[in-house]
Amino acid sequence: QVHLVESGGGLVQPGGSLRLSCAASGRTWEIDDMGWYRQAPGKQRELVAVVGDRSSTNYAESVKGRFDIARVGNTVYLQMNSLKSEDTAIYYCHVSATLSRDYWGQGTQVTVSS
């Protein structure tokens, strides 16, 4: 099992910044990719950004140039800049591990509003 604990969500004004953190514990040696998804009300969960075990990254088109994902040991960070109202969602940390296993965090709310 891999356990994920997220932090860093909150309320921010448009144009502002937030940083999300996700710390993994447990069988961390099995982790491949670490990333973030988000789900807005009435919408499907979507990929935001992912970082591989060799630090390769992939971003959703909607966040390219504004968000930055980084992985330090067993913690993954999502730096979110120039936030827009459409970034409002619950953000979930996700880990893919060996044997095609997936683990999810509990989710953290990000609200962008004036």
What would the average pLDDT be, to the nearest integer?
A: 95
**First-last Cα distance:** 40 Å
- Please state roughly what percent of the residues sit in beta strands, choosing from under 5%, 5-15%, 15-25%, 25-35%, 35-45% or over 45%: over 45%
Q: Please outline the major beta sheet.
A: 7 strands, mixed
* Helix fraction bin: under 10%
Extended strand count? 11
Name the overall outline.
globular
Question: What are the low-pLDDT stretches, counting only 5+ consecutive residues below 50?
Answer: none
Class per helix and strand makeup = mainly beta
Number of helices in the DSSP assignment: 0
Can you offer a commentary on this structure?
The protein is mainly β and 114 residues long. The protein has no helices and eleven strands. Strand 5 and strand 6 form a beta hairpin.
How is the secondary structure organized here?
Blueprint: E1 2-7, E2 10-12, E3 18-26, E4 31-39, E5 46-51, E6 57-59, E7 67-72, E8 75-80, E9 89-97, E10 101-104, E11 108-112
